[in-house]
Write a structure and sequence with these properties.
Layout: E1 15-18, E2 23-24, H1 34-47, E3 53-57, E4 66-70, H2 72-80, E5 86-90, H3 95-107, H4 114-132, H5 141-154, H6 163-182, H7 186-191, H8 196-210, H9 217-221, H10 230-237, H11 242-254, H12 260-266, H13 282-295, H14 299-312, H15 315-330
Parallel strand pairs: 2-4, 3-5
Antiparallel strand pairs: 1-5, 3-4
């Protein structure tokens, strides 16, 4: 009988170390993405292999002793990195049962934690960049312009261009790269979980946490409150000063029950510091935009705009406005 993914006996399976060249690859259910394999290979070479592949023992007449059941991208990635061993679990069953194991793993694959996913997306982006090797072939004029903008911004320090802004520009560039390398449409990228918006979030996490703190991010990923909370991790990235950001992470690791807000408060970050004011959202953002736009108008333009503004206001607000105007004039303002 085949060992299924949800079979309790799978938890006690012996992990084998096998030469990748000793594993044959048959027909697969899914699609092979070379850059995904390259990214996984780099991650395995750097961090070790967390998830063993699954293999079946071949008969004596087979050219190779093992046949792959699950883990094509991990296997090919290990080969690309020149690693001489890959962790594997032996499974048994007929072709139909083994195909069921392959399908089950692809459908029920463990979701990556936010920082783990960010590390993977970073590797995918780097692998796509390596394949393109600076060529413009296949890029549209708009994509070439996006690339030029990224090349300019990437050389600037975070103090000049914030982490989030860099990630947003790079996300647009990386989306263009993947469209060329894979031939992806925006819909396909969305289905793969690599839309430009998702890419922005992942690259921001990598730039704000993983890249500057290589010895801390793995422990942060295991933090019981913050580790699996993407919003909380983005709150850390929003701390502009890298030294302050490190203090927040260190405080979280020191006290596992803390939230990001509590860690920032304990570090005295964001208190009386305009640099740490979170970006405006919702109604605050709309009000800031309205004030900014009105401020750009000349006196004559503001006068012409006033009737439309009053018409847009609710009656109760107009009463309040009259009171505010009276107070404003009483204060001597003109």
């Amino acid at each position: 009988m085949a060992i299924a993914e949800n079979d309790p006996s799978h938890q006690d399976a012996v992990i084998l170390s096998i030469n990748p060249d000793d594993i044959e690859i048959g027909e697969r259910l899914g699609v092979f993405w070379p850059d995904k394999a390259a990214a996984l290979g780099k991650l395995i070479a750097q961090d070790g292999q967390n998830d063993p592949i699954k293999v079946r023992k071949n008969g004596n007449r087979a050219k190779k002793p093992w046949r792959l059941v699950v883990g094509l991208h991990r296997l090919e990635g290990v080969k690309m990195e020149g690693l001489r061993a890959i962790d594997a679990i032996e499974v048994w069953g007929n072709d139909e049962q083994l195909r069921e194991i392959e399908a089950s793993e692809n459908v029920h694959r463990r979701a990556l934690h936010p920082l783990e996913r960010a590390s993977f997306v970073r590797a995918v982006a780097d692998a796509a960049e390596a394949r393109m090797r600076g060529d413009h072939e296949g890029l549209t004029q708009q994509q070439i312009a996006v690339r030029a903008r990224w090349n300019d911004v990437s050389r600037k320090a975070d103090a000049v261009v914030p982490v989030e802004a860099k990630a947003e520009i790079e996300a647009g560039y990386t989306t263009a790269k993947l469209a060329v390398v894979y031939g992806w449409s925006a819909q396909v990228a969305e289905a793969m979980g690599l839309s430009e918006r998702a890419m922005f979030r992942d690259l921001a996490l990598h730039r704000g946490i993983i890249d500057p703190f290589p010895t801390l991010w793995r422990d942060l990923a295991k933090h019981p409150v913050v580790g699996e909370n993407a919003s909380a991790l983005r709150e850390i990235v929003a701390v502009r000063n890298v030294n302050d950001r490190e203090k927040v992470i260190a405080e979280l690791l020191r006290f596992p029950a803390l939230t990001v807000g509590e860690a920032k408060e304990r570090c005295g970050i964001g208190i009386g510091d305009a640099r740490q004011t979170p970006p405006a959202t919702g109604a605050t953002k709309f009000m800031n935009n309205a004030l900014s736009n009105i401020g750009r108008l000349s006196v004559g333009q503001q006068r012409d705009f006033l009737p439309a503004l009053l018409k847009a206001l609710k009656p109760s607000v107009i009463d309040l406005l009259e009171a505010q105007i009276a107070t404003f004039k009483a204060g001597g303002a003109k």
